[in-house]
Amino acid sequence: MNRLSSACPVTLIGGAPVSRADLDQALAVAPVVAAADSGADTALSHGLIPAAVWGDFDSISARARAEIPAENQHPVAEQDSTDFEKCLQRLDAPFVVAVGFSGARQDHFLAALSVIARGIGPPCLLIAGEDVIVRLPSRLRLDLPPATRVSLFPMGPARGTSRGLRWPIGGVEFAPGTRVGTSNQADGAVELTCEGQMLLILPRECLQILTTAL
């Protein structure tokens, strides 16, 4: 298994559309670049050479294969995991900021959320549209501006407690098909505890607050 070990956080680029704004925001907190399959082409189009590329290599271009050093390319043939999962399984870093995993195929996006919810690899923050999405750890404190949107989406049975939310979550039994926690609001600093698989969704402007808190 060819791994990338980095003392710095890593920006992981996928094959869905990625704007320069997405990359700039990610690279500001995660300066090392890696890619999933055709995300390597996206990296090259922005003048970036990935330190590692993983995937089944069914969509990476011949140009990318030629321009990226061979020692940075790590084909993974098995088909029991997504390219996103293959990458996170092989990354050692304080955290990962993922871009290019939303905005194209929704089945790929849902699969990425499933990987994040299962806690595979380092903590992973996914930038998607207006949001940043992360698995909620067992305990988290966030210094959020008042009125910040805070959404909680369960990926299985989950429960927790809160301080600083407009609508407290204590006593709520969350589950994907019955009860979710979208569009809550912070009164200021928020403290959360969680049991189970829960996604925390915040405005993407909160990325740096999240990386500091994790």
Automatic annotation (TrEMBL):
Keywords: ATP-binding, Kinase, Nucleotide-binding, Transferase
Residues of the Thiamin pyrophosphokinase thiamin-binding domain: 148-197
Record-annotated Thiamin pyrophosphokinase catalytic domain positions: 25-117
GO biological process: thiamine diphosphate biosynthetic process; thiamine metabolic process
Keyword ATP-binding: yes
MF GO annotations: ATP binding; kinase activity; thiamine binding; thiamine diphosphokinase activity
EC number: 2.7.6.2
NCBIfam families noted in UniProt: thi_PPkinase
PANTHER family xref list: THIAMINE PYROPHOSPHOKINASE (PTHR41299:SF1)
Protein name as annotated: Thiamine diphosphokinase
Organism listed in the record: Paracoccus kondratievae
Phylogenetic placement of the source organism: Bacteria, Pseudomonadati, Pseudomonadota, Alphaproteobacteria, Rhodobacterales
